[in-house]
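Subject: Re: docking follow-up (flavin-adenine dinucleotide)

Dear J.,

Thanks for your patience while I sorted out the input files. As discussed at Tuesday's group meeting, I've set up the holo structure prediction with flavin-adenine dinucleotide included as the bound ligand rather than trying to dock it afterwards. The sequence and the ligand SMILES I used are pasted below, so you can double-check that they match what you have on your end before we go further.
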Amino acid sequence: MTFPRNLLYSRLSSLNKYSRNVNTSAVRLQNVQQVTAKKRICIVGAGPAGFYAAQYLLKQLSDCTVDIVEKLPVPFGLVRFGVAPDHPEVKNVINTFTKTAENPRLRFFGNVSLGQDVSLQELRQRYHAVLLTYGADQDRELQLQNEEQKHVISARKFVAWYNGLPGAEQLQPDLSGRDVTIVGQGNVAMDVARMLLSPIDTLKATDTTEYALEALARSQVKRVHLVGRRGPLQAAFTIKELREMLKLPNVTTNWRADDFAGIAEQVEQLQRPRRRLTELMLKSLSEQSKRTATAVDGKQFLPIFLRAPKAISAKEIEFAVTQLQENAAVATDTTECLPADLILRSIGYKSSCADPAINFDPQRGHVRHDQGRVLKEGEGSSVEPGLYVAGWLGTGPTGVILTTMNGAFAVAKTICDDITANAFDTASTKPGFEVANQRIVTWDGWLRIDQHECEAGKAKGKLREKIVDVEQMLRIAGV
Ligand SMILES: Cc1cc2nc3c(=O)[nH]c(=O)nc-3n(C[C@H](O)[C@H](O)[C@H](O)COP(=O)(O)OP(=O)(O)OC[C@H]3O[C@@H](n4cnc5c(N)ncnc54)[C@H](O)[C@@H]3O)c2cc1C
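The structure tokens for the complex came back this morning:
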């Protein structure tokens, strides 16, 4: 997964100045049944794809209402539970989502899970159109023996742990050893490496959960190996993330000179972003040879290329040395073992099938669709009328928030076009969402949780202290 943030963040931040001044009258209105509205649209998942699609639909269709159904009591998906706590500027997109949620034609139903509390069939009966945007919350596995051992965990779970996803506090990663080996070199891997190597004082002001801060303060981790199957020219991390690593105080970055054989000669032919990234790696490598010994108490960041994971044991991970053949990594017979008190697997996310009625491709880990229109199971190119998919659930887990935004806008436009073309029924009356005996968190309820978290954070000198217990969230939300 790649997320080149360079342009994205400055653009999104300037678009969205964070303001806590919530239009309470608009919020109150959201619970009023919108009997006059003609088209009822349900969006499943309150992450970026869901909110951006809602924004587009509400703007383009003046006679529609949008209900967002979200599994958790709280909104924003990976913006809250994925984006690194030391990148608060990225989370400014929450301002735009909040504005969208204040629209009286939008209702938020938190704590309602598709497949558990409501079925796809029910939603399709109750709405003219349903848009699935429930993301990718599983991780890809290495498929190696011993992968289930306690010292092997997914980067996804580690990220969820420091970001306070309900249930993730149970993870308790063992940070008592010196060496962590991360398999994978994308920006999620870089986020995790940075969290492990950053001085604790810089993390204290962020919204990192308190239990994670305590564990990171006790951490004995001194060396983080970041291992990839391919070479420096294929590195999946981006320049911003590398710059941040190179600037971390009391952390030395050590490259392997052998990994860069023949790389300098190719720099001139590279496209600009790849060239700049490669130049930065080469510059850092050349500075390293001039450096005197690493400070004894210092930490080390160790990027290693051309190694494919082969076997896991108690304190080590064995890698096959690879060679590049037409950009693909091919394992050789030579192997190398790296020390690993903790192994973090960071080779990508995948979606799950939340409801058996969804035409889901388990191999690729996403919903089968044609430009956002969900395909009928086993019927070639014919589509399910009024059923759509957007975000990582449709594209697979690639791309940044900006990419997700563009994709969600495109699918929302397809919905509008299909309405104009009468591609599905919008004439009949639809009742919208109703669930008996369900503790539903409304937008007002979320605002109460938000206020509580911000106040708790302020008392500790942090941006916010996230609540991780669902029951406590529901209590504060007043349900
Ligand atoms: C660790 C990490 C760090 C990242 N950092 C950055 C970054 O710094 N900058 C950047 O631009 N991009 C970043 N990204 C990428 C960005 O987060 C994604 O592009 C974006 O979140 C995808 O949006 P989505 O709406 O498809 O999915 P999600 O954000 O995952 O939202 C899906 C929502 O659906 C809900 N849901 C799940 N199952 C159900 C169900 N059964 N019923 C109802 N609701 C359900 C989830 O709770 C969630 O709220 C990062 C991604 C990761 C994994």
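A couple of observations from a first look. Residues 37 and 63 are 5 Å apart (CA to CA). Residues 3, 5, 8, 44-50, 69-72, 77-79, 82-83, 87, 90, 113-115, 133-135, 137, 159, 188, 191, 349, 354, 391-392, 399-401, 404 surround flavin-adenine dinucleotide (CB under 6 Å).

Let me know if you'd like me to rerun anything.

Best regards,
T.
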